[in-house]
TrEMBL record:
Domain of life: Eukaryota
InterPro entries: Split_barrel_FMN-bd, TR_PAI2-type
Ranges for region Disordered: 240-260
Record's protein name: Transcriptional regulator
Segments of skewed composition (Basic and acidic residues): 242-260
Length: 260
């Protein structure tokens, strides 16, 4: 991801909060395989674990799961088994992937920005161009795969993963006081489901954030963008205008701090 300084968010707690607020990530791997594409991606919801929530530097660990029938799962298992062939008969779980993996988390509010919004530069010089505003966080890390359905480690990981992810949805997303619980489903049904999935755990090695929200514009153009989005009279437009205003003010404060 291209990260000009004006768009870059370096505050780790803010990046962790972003992931938890937008927990559906695009999980990407690059694995040589004679049966599957080299690069594969899947949309997966994640749980982010952090030991110290007050830490300004801890990146944390992502936990998720994916269908065993997913071609990306098959490529992972084939690759890991081929590497581990001499070490463990049939491959045991968990196993680690040597290569980094990537997970991209996107903000749901994104929008095209028309040059008509620029109220300062456009009338003066006409030197304006359309663009797109968006926010995203990308994570690079080391992957551990829990895929042996007979292993206690897989059973324990998936048991915790399903319960914790359910709470992310039921309480974090839906805000239910009385959430649906995994235990509400028949145990035999849950066991069948668990055999059809594999667990993935990513130790985060690097986390980058980007808020491309017209911060680089002059105040006049930025105000035009804010008013332009509000003038759309849509929910997305209103939210976009609020984010542009917030990020613009943050950018101004950073500039003032550097100059003082």
């Amino acid at each position: 991801m291209y990260l000009p300084d004006v768009y870059t968010e370096k505050d780790i707690p803010a990046l962790r909060n972003f992931i938890r607020s937008n927990s559906l990530g695009i999980f990407t791997t690059a694995i040589e395989s004679s049966k599957h594409p080299f690069i594969q991606s899947s949309h997966l919801p994640f749980v982010l674990d952090v030991e110290d929530e007050n830490s300004p530097t801890e990146l944390g660990v992502l936990r998720g799961h994916m269908a065993r029938a997913n071609p990306q799962s098959k490529a992972l298992i084939d690759h890991i088994n081929s590497v581990a062939n001499d070490e463990v008969e049939g491959g045991d779980s968990p196993r680690k992937l040597e290569r980094d993996v990537l997970v991209l988390f996107n903000h749901p509010i994104q929008h095209y920005v028309t040059p008509k919004f620029y109220r300062e530069t456009k009338p003066k010089t006409g030197k304006v161009a359309p663009t797109w505003n968006y926010a995203a966080v990308q994570v690079y890390g080391k992957l551990t795969v829990y895929y042996d359905s007979k292993a206690d480690s897989t059973e324990d990981f998936l048991e915790k993963q399903l319960k914790d992810l359910t709470m992310v949805g039921e309480k974090g997303v839906m805000k239910y006081d009385e959430p649906w619980l995994v235990e509400d489903a028949p145990r035999s049904f849950v066991q069948i489901l668990k055999k059809a999935i594999i667990g993935i755990e990513i130790e985060i090695m690097r986390m980058d954030g980007k808020w491309k929200m017209s911060q680089e514009m002059s105040k006049g153009d930025r105000e035009g963008v804010i008013n332009g989005f509000r003038g759309l009279n849509s929910d997305v437009g209103t939210k976009m205008s609020d984010i542009v205003e917030e990020r613009g003010e943050m950018s101004d404060r950073k500039k003032e701090a550097k100059s003082s």
